[in-house]
Amino acid sequence: MTGTAGLHGALTRLPAFAGLPQGALEPMPRRGVAHDHVRLLGKGLVARVPRWSQLGLDPIANLEQQATAFRRAAPSGHTPELAAVLPPGPELPMGALVVTEIVGRPPRLPGDMPAIARALAALHALPLPLDGERAPLPAPADPVAATLAQVERQAVWFERAGLAPDALARLGTELEAARAFRCAAPIPITLVGSDVHPGNFLIDDAGKAWFTDLEKAQYGHPAIDLAHASLYTSTMWEREVAAVLAPDEVAAFHEAWEAAVPPALAEAVRPWRQPLRRLTWLRTLSWMARWRVEGAALSPDMPDSLAAHMDAHAVDVLRPEIIGRVAAEWR
């Protein structure tokens, strides 16, 4: 963000922050594409300021959905707690949330993958609200079909991104396989984080993993979270975290998750785990294809180094050889 005056004005209208000096706001290094973060010095809090909604929501709906996600995830013990909501206004067009600051370091892979698995397990094991009580978080009746529909909407960007013909052919094959997939097993539904790439976690001094970005939280299929946390497209996303997991390291991650959830949930997810890796991977690749075309417009004023990393990652994951290497896991 270009300055903190608007945030300071919005904060100081709340009684809890009435005496907060302007100098207590410390912008944090920008790491993601959709939010700025500002530390409230001496408060143990961070302001989370949206730059845009990755879900296409208006500012009020975006803020309400994110606030609800933080409230509902907090009992897991692995996410920040919501402290305040700053509504959208002239000073702060997208509003902001104030959440507890998680003091920690980026994950080191593969060593911290079991801790990430346990954090996801705590999220997935939370009690499921009744159907009529899940809004405003998305709650598709069939999250597998909903994810495929998302991939179909985003797949138009493959053609627009100027990909190599071999890459397009490989992606077409994978899309056809995703469309043809059927599984007779019941679909387990839990609270899921959705955007659970390892860069969205912090590891505290005790080795506990904290999931910090709940913008895309919804009620969905936990196997999609397991895939997104461990696929190449995700483990290479964040510069400070980047690593490639070996098959045995992915298996150890799954084992840690199964050990931390109720046995019935582990059993229900098992038949979906491998098939949904392809679908989750296509969800990310189609988003990255869009980034190759519209990245600069989607997140303007991004620091040059972060933009360069994102651009390079979008090129890398859509190279024919990388597509083939990842797809070999299920072929």
UniProtKB/TrEMBL annotation:
InterPro entries: Aminoglycoside_PTrfase, Kinase-like_dom_sf. It holds the Pfam family APH. Residues 58-259 form the Aminoglycoside phosphotransferase domain. This is Phosphotransferase family protein. It comes from Azospirillum argentinense. The lineage of its organism: Bacteria, Pseudomonadati, Pseudomonadota, Alphaproteobacteria, Rhodospirillales.
